What we know:
The complex is a heterodimer.
Chain A: H1 2-7, H2 17-41, E1 54-55, H3 61-64, E2 66-67, H4 71-78, H5 80-100, H6 102-113, H7 117-128, H8 135-146, H9 152-159, H10 173-201, H11 205-213, H12 218-229, H13 231-242, H14 250-255, H15 262-265, H16 268-278, H17 282-309
Chain B: H1 2-7, H2 18-54, H3 58-62, H4 76-84, H5 86-116, H6 124-132, H7 141-150, H8 168-181, H9 184-192, H10 197-208, H11 210-226, H12 229-234, H13 243-252, H14 257-262, H15 264-269, H16 272-306
Helix pairs in contact in B: 2-16, 4-16, 5-8, 5-11, 8-11, 11-16, 13-16
Amino acid sequence: MATKKAAAPNVKVNTPWKAAIKRDWQLYLLLLLPLAMVFIFNYAAYPGMRMMFMDYKPAKGYDGSKWVGMETFVKVFKDRDFRRALSSSLVFNVLDLLVGFPMPILLALILNELRYVKFKKVSQTILYLPHFLSWAIIGSVAYTMFRPSSGLVNMALMNMGIIKEGIPFLTEKWHWAVTYLLIGVWQGMGWGTIIYLAAITSISGELYEAAMIDGANRWQRMWNITLPGIKSTVVTLLIMNLGRVMGSNYERLSIFGNSMVRDFQYQLAIYIYEKGLSNGKYSMATVVGVFQSLVGLILVLLADKVAKKLGEDGLL
Amino acid sequence: MAKKKENIPRDAEVTSDGSRAINKFRISDAVMIAVVTLLCATCVMPFIHLFAKSISGNSAVMAKRVYFWPKDINFDAYASIFRDGSLVYSFIYSVIVTLIFTLLGMIVCTCAAYPLSKKRLRGKLVFTFLLMFPMYFGAGLIPSYLLMHDLHLLDNMWVLILPLIYSPYNMLIMKTYFQSSIPDSLEESAFLDGASNFQILWHIVLPLSKPILATLSLFYAVGRWNAYSDNIYYIRTETLKMVQYKLYQMVASANEAQTATLSEAAAVTSTPEVLQAAAIMFVTIPIICIYPFLQKYFVKGVMVGAVKG
């Protein structure tokens, strides 16, 4: 008995179930709690997806509503609102990626080059702050800063005589698009920077030494050592972000919503909330939601495969 | 490795063209410092402005004279917020919800992470898949909404707690930490001494995991504190709404509803703009105050979670 116990913890043996339970029943007991949570709150929602194939009426419930096969799918993809929401979502998400993905990398490279430790530490602390703020705070702060007549930015610009009228940062759709994207970059730059900086510090110092002895300047070192050194981290984060290309953030969209920018602001999250919860078109909203999840999953799997083919580690 | 790098004299550029290289070096340095400083300013200035605005006199604010220094200092706006009480109530309510959420979340997280971190666990692959899959695929808003309805959790404080306390992402971080930071030998010797799994978890593993427990508690707390979309979806009763939602409401209703409810009397003494600024600061100041102290745990946690090897 004593020898069996001593061998068990470290050896990978295919223990028969009876023995495994006898040895680790406490571990299985612990697992019951999270398993219960995941089944009750995640998996229990999956059957609800059958609404995609029904003409679900809230009043009639699951049993009272009839099955319509692919009809709802067709309805959704024909729906002009859906097409609008889809294209807006995709455009903005891709732009988010294009503008927002490189930013933390650049910041990490810059911060890594600076030699003044105090400055580095303080600036890192400050730059991570936006990530700690909710969209409600960010939105309300943004309005305060960017209001056409009384926002700080416009006040300053007008008082300095640079402009005559306030710039409609958040109240005209093209300006809104730029402001919206930049605020997204602002909010996320801290988090990515932490990760890339951590990856950079794990690059061997000897490589830099050798490069400097060979006469490489800072840009050459950055290009040949730092960037390749964080390649796997970049790939991992890229895969994670690709999975969100079909996603949509309700908090971020709703806080910046107003009638002037509706065209661009009407994206998938808004579509689902309005058509689904507000207008009761549960089936249609379910189709869109599942569509989002599926596409996201497929994108992550594909990107992971591609990454592995190219020799990287991948996410899964 | 990191320490070694610190000692390399980074400004010792070994090039043939000595002086020119050092000059170019300084300019790019200056540009970088300028860029970073500018970015930091964008993070700090808005709050300085808002704070100044919140304690300034109405006329100064209306005349657009308040930039970063308050004018005609008075605390009327804050006084009305406290007198009205709804924001204060919501704040305290949110703190309670966050605390419960964090406690339960940490318990559930540990219950998943510890067993899954053991190589010897039979069926580990299946359990890991079951516990990680929801992170990659969700049923969507409507099925979740109906589920909450069926569970009688709509318009109930617990809908803000229960569905999210198990977080696959946090569990992954904790599991990784257990696997990499708790040596097997420790457990083995405990087994030899006759300890049970529970005892090892409670007396050995948890005390050694204080850093990751602090970090993940932070992740849970900040996550719950900042999120308010579930408030929008699942709750109708005003008193069950969390404080971020109140702020959202203030913004979304185009500055009318919240300031009206904040108190009619207040409307006499503070213009909506000052009151709004005060409301925003009321919700934000606590975070800004706690943030510097928690930041290092947050950074460690993000690093453990994302960097490979």
